[in-house]
Design brief:
By secondary structure, the protein is mostly helical. It is 48% helix and 5% strand. Helix 6 (165-177) crosses helix 9, helix 6 (165-177) packs across helix 13 and helix 11 (257-272) packs across helix 13 (306-334). It is globular.
Length: 353
């Protein structure tokens, strides 16, 4: 290598610079204080906190285009740099640039969720859930909102580290399902009773699905949910540290599935046992309901019919029961003075919320 004068490492490329022919172009956001570029706002905020902690966090980030050596892999090959478009000069070109920018802003505005001013045009379902107002509050294009709950895209540099996430989540819920056969039947009946104080305890115990492949379908919304929590910032005071730890484990490429599975359990338990309450700043503070709203958002800014939401709710409820079952069994195993019924008592208030 040295005789041929070939560098042992790839060069470090910084931007802005012209596009490199043949490399994929990504929509990204640029740091205002250094050449750093990221495709996710969360990553940019983390960078700002580490590298520019003495400067207030900007309210808005600069949109840009970026490239990297390779979307997959690790290290410098995935580092993004900002690229510029074709150079245009002259008065007419500058006017065209201004017109293009205005049209782009208008196009983005039209793509955001539009809220009718006449309540007669809004379905009773949305008037109850306020999902349309919440989505409008983001002031983001609909496709960006939908992307928040999309499974990880391995061709995007900032998401490649999540390639094993779906497999880990499936393993987590398979472990929970395996506990059903050895759990007290009364506990399973209570798990299958959303409102036992109001409606009594169900005679039907919580049970496995008839077909094994059904579990894969039921955990899909949870994969989207966990991806949403990992890739964006949410006001979850009691769970943020747990979420960040899971994110760190995935970014470091941890191969210890037992630790990852345990961290997934801690994260879901923290989110699903937090009593969420509305306030003037957050229309839907519960991230699970936020995810449900985004999963039912259509590309045209409308929302799916309530009957199409029912199955999604059932999927979330089933996975919640599996998480609670895992916690019940863990508590009963860890403390000889706590049996499954007592552990179930502690989680009962969060059933049906």
């Amino acid at each position: 290598m040295s005789q041929l004068q070939v560098a042992a490492t790839l060069p470090t490329i910084t931007g802005p610079r012209t596009k490199v022919h043949g490399l994929q172009v990504f929509v990204a956001m640029a740091c205002k204080f250094c050449p750093a570029v990221f495709t996710k706002e969360k990553k940019l905020r983390e960078h700002h906190g580490l590298q520019h902690h003495d400067i207030p966090v900007p309210q808005h980030w600069q949109s840009c285009q970026a490239q990297c050596m390779k979307a997959e892999g690790a290290g410098s090959v995935r580092k993004l740099w900002q690229v510029t478009g074709d150079t245009r000069v002259g008065g007419d070109s500058r006017k065209k640039i201004l017109v293009d920018d205005l049209l782009k802003e208008l196009d983005q505005e039209l793509k955001t969720v539009q809220v009718p001013t006449d309540h007669h045009l809004v379905s009773p379902w949305l008037l109850t859930t306020h999902w349309h107002e919440w989505a409008r509050w983001f002031r983001k294009p609909t496709e960006e909102l939908c992307a928040l709950v999309s499974p990880p895209c391995l061709s995007v540099p900032d998401e490649e580290q999540y390639k094993t996430l779906a497999k880990s989540i499936q393993l987590y819920f398979e472990e929970a399902v395996s506990l059903i056969d050895t759990t007290d039947e009364l506990v399973l009946q209570r798990l299958n009773s959303p409102y036992p104080n109001k409606d009594g305890i169900s005679n039907t115990p919580f049970h496995k699905h008839m077909h094994e492949n059904t579990l894969k379908q039921y955990i899909h919304p949870v994969i989207c949910f966990i991806t949403m929590l990992l890739q964006d910032l949410w006001m979850i005071p009691d769970a943020n540290m747990v979420i960040l730890k899971l994110d760190d484990m995935l970014q470091e490429g941890s191969t210890d599935q037992s630790h990852i599975v345990h961290q997934i359990h801690l994260m879901l338990l923290a989110v699903w046992t937090t009593p969420w309450s509305k306030d003037k700043h957050y229309i839907i503070p519960d991230p699970t309901k936020s995810c449900l709203a985004l999963l039912t958002l259509n590309q045209d800014g409308s929302f799916k019919h309530p009957k199409e939401v029912t199955k999604l709710i059932a999927m979330f409820e089933y996975c919640m029961c599996l998480t609670f079952l895992k916690e019940i069994r863990a508590c009963a195993s860890a403390d000889t003075n706590v049996d499954e019924a007592a552990a179930c008592d502690d989680l009962q208030p969060f059933k049906g919320t």
